[in-house]
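Hey Z.,

So I finally got round to the GLP thing we talked about over coffee. Here's the setup:
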Amino acid sequence: MDIITTPSYEALSKEAASYVSRKVQKNPHIVLGLATGSTPTGMYEQLIKDHITSGTSYQNVTTFNLDEYVRMNKKNPNSYYAFMEKHLFQHIDIQNELTFIPDGMSTDPQMECSIYEEKLRKHGPIDLQILGLGANGHIGFNEPGTSFSSRTHIVELTDSTRKANSRFFKDIDDVPTHAITMGIASIMEAKEILLLVAGANKKKAYEQLLYGEVSEDFPASILKKHPCVKILADQSVLDTSSIIA
Ligand code: GLP
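And the result:
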């Protein structure tokens, strides 16, 4: 794993955006895997700035999002569909039909998982997958204990994840109990992975990722087995003495 540490969240966001936009410029037909949550929002902001100032085009870019809540209407501001529109898609020249997000409102969520895998097979593989890190080591919504061989599936969210995500909702009871997520094996098929880690609440998880063993009890640990992973971590997850950029 290639690790770059940055002095601030802003620096992390700029570094991540510059990495992604260079990849898009180099390969205008790139397939990107995208994440939601607080961590990548700064990167998306920088990508929008770059699109406006440098003209980086997303006309031929395909995107796959990691996950979506089950029984969450697209129009609900807490849906990941709405998140992506707000934080990225409505600001760039991406084609709607080339952006894929699991359909949380499907009447048959199980079938939706198979359909999503089929889309990944058809349009993939993902060239560059962006990931955030859950405080309990989850990636996408793959909670501790998820099989490393899992494909896109329905998950019951842990109490700790629902609590962590309740900051976006009025009440914790409004946080959905289930989600559809790309599986760990689906994520690991990406040619390259960019993991973003920011915020003091990720310090423990970051340390476990670096120094712990590879185990299904800590889903992100599988990334150690991927041939091409880049980690961008900001100061808040580090000892200040180890900052190098
Ligand atoms: C969420 C999302 C993940 C995200 C992670 C960390 O629940 N499903 O895709 O990477 O948890 O979120 P945050 O960046 O807000 O800490």
